[in-house]
Hints:
alpha/beta, 47% helix, 16 helices, 3 domains, two-stranded antiparallel ribbon, LolB
Amino acid sequence: MPLEPLARWRLVLGEAAEGALGGCLDGQGQAMDSALSWLYGREEELAGRDVRERKGGLGGSQLTVPEWINDIHTLFPKETIERLEQDAVERYKIDEVVTRADVLERVEPNETLLRAVLRTKHLMNPEVLAVARRIVAKVVRDLMEKLQQEVRRTFSGTLDRRRRSPLKVARNFDFRRTLRENLRRYSPEHKRVAIERAAFFSRTKRHTERWQVILLVDQSGSMTSSVIHSAVTAACLWGLPGIQTHLVAFDTSVVDLTRDVTDPVELLMKVQLGGGTDIQLAVGYGAGLIEMPRRAIVVLITDFYEGGHPDMLVRRVKDLCAQGTKVLGLAALEPDATPNYDRDMARRLVDVGAHVAAMTPGELATWIAEKVRA
């Protein structure tokens, strides 16, 4: 049953409004208020301490994390549940949400939960890891389904309406020719055309020479979303005609994850988030993978806060650009493409020939396609 307006205001304003709005909550409203207070009652403590010290279940409420999860799934609509779970994981760092199997089984799989799993998987026992892996697989599958459509559309050639193709691909369907060639099978009684043989257009190839796309991904804690979308993007690019994809993760060391690109779930479970950042080391490694400089694209996905050697980073990027390699620096690779990066370093890289931007995965695929067929 929908809440009355006064009850809604009481839930929004919290216990402080009890004097003015007391008595407007029924049993369900009181349960909702308890669930909200369990989470947001921690807010007063944030000013005086690091939020990461916060542990679930502390404070006056006797609710445990599993009980709270069960309550909110009973009391609130899906959109509100997702927001509450997001705040529990990201804002209040309640690790139990992602380190207990019984809690994980109840939480809605989404990208927020995936980020939390990647940050805390080192705390998980084998039973919890098995549940977490299923969550990772579900979220990754959803992300890939969305991105694959964009990548296929971006890299598929233009329709050649002068040529027919034996390949039966829906997006190449030639409606006019199909109708014309089957008109003799029109049934006046049923007012339908029986299609005996459908016609399809051919497509031109957008690129005939092989290109290398080298994704260098900063796996520091602030880049978690970009790590996720880099893995999914690499998997979608893998196997495209004329594209050889590499995926390299780095912090103060470099790990080549290319062999795991076809299994982004396994790849993400291997990523170790956190630590320092030595960007120039990763750029040097990527440079060593290049076979044909003028047929290579290096995508550097980082916040540009160089913990190693800033001048060496600029020099390495300058050398890549000078040899004809296209260098793209991405401050963010996620759906909302919200950048948070060292603008001074980004400007220095632009000055030596790199492109710097914040892109969604679909925009990155479009950018690569444009460079490949230029």
